[in-house]
Specification:
mainly beta, 4-stranded antiparallel β-sheet, globular
Length: 169
Amino acid sequence: MNKKLFILAPIFLLGSSLTLLCQEKPKEKKKWEDERISIIVDKVERADSFPEELRISGFTYGQPEKGRDIVLIQLTIVEKRDLRIKPEEERLSKPNCPHLIDDRSETHWPSWATFNVTLRPKKIAYLPFVIPKDATPVQLKYVYEYRDELPKPQDILHGRIDIDLPHIQ
């Protein structure tokens, strides 16, 4: 009888553990949104050069200065609602473009290009920033363009979603 318990006990524990593991749901990523767009930050990565698989042919990618590296933020645009702006109208530039705030409260602007991913046909986009190696990204201020409905003025307006990054990395 003791031999049966000795054999059955580990099998029972293994079966119970596997059942619990199978019941755990994958951690759902937080969605950041306002009344016009919904964004998920898929990942925040650091690298000493721009990833080869993301390079665009014909564009020159410089190396970050000594003591700095690249923080690459991968976003998924989940939904865009009523932006009422055409890609050729895109005018994002400082200070009205996405920017990164580090743990020293310093602001970093996107490197190599400033673009509005809400206008891109792909839902996944990357925002590269060059920051000091000893700085930690803490917040992405995602800025995008839109227009109000008529009869309001047709000026291009800017929306912003503040995304906390520490729990994403």
